[in-house]
User: What shape does this take?
Amino acid sequence: MTGYASAQHGASAEDGGASGRNSRLGLEIRSVNSRFLDLSFRLPDELRAHEPALRALLTARLKRGKVEVRAAIDNDDGNSLPDPSTAMLQRLAMLQDTVQSWLPDARSLSVSDALRLASGGANSAIDWSSVLPTLAEQALTELLEARAREGKRLATMLLDRIAQLRKLAADATPLVPQLVEQQRLRFMERWKEAMALAEGAVAPEAAQDRALTEATAFAIRIDVAEEVTRLDSHLDEIQSLLKKGGEIGKRLDFLIQELHREANTLGSKSATLELTRISVDMKVLIEQMREQVQNIE
Assistant: This one.
């Protein structure tokens, strides 16, 4: 399910030798619909070592969704850039030359690297290891609350589709005995016509018995009462699961497949335009349910 959450924490770097510079750690968690759980992380270098712990935290409490976790450290120095001394810049240049003499492929320092190092490394002066888990818990709790609200919306939509499916099933129910009787009579008429053409080839009593047997078997094959009953039973279970809550996504997936199977069978047996229309309408509603059920844990 979709959701967004964020948490922030500010800290001062004065004790780390960068007087007057403050830092803020921000954490965002975004979730979009996905049938499976897919986690991705965008963390600054200072926090990359914490990715396994964050992954374990999210995996323990999320089962589905494409989830992206972003963290960033922002420095607030009174809207002024650090003013590095010439001596510090010379020192950095000497250190760079030494490193590159041993490691020729080493990347040269950028302007931002030089400013950060010359300012005393405000980011590294703060230990975020104790703050990050707390922020992650806060953001995850907020995300779960957002997803719960989304879940209620999805449940309302599914209950509406269930009501529409029940209405279609109710419309189909009185058509079933009429359909069976119509098809039986039609079969008997065709059979009598065929027997009239082959008069004398078969005993009348035997032909009549065989015709009745064939007509009954045909009526059973086109009887959709069983499909309507099973469909109604599946709807009952889906409604019960939505009321119960919890991790119901996989069970709902299975029940939606069963609904689709019953609607398909009803359509293949339909011998009237009205039943065919009902079958098509059912499949449209079931497909709408299937798309949303894939997002439910």
Q: What stands out?
A: The chain has nine helices and four strands. The two ends are 8 Å apart (CA to CA). Residues 3-142 form one domain.
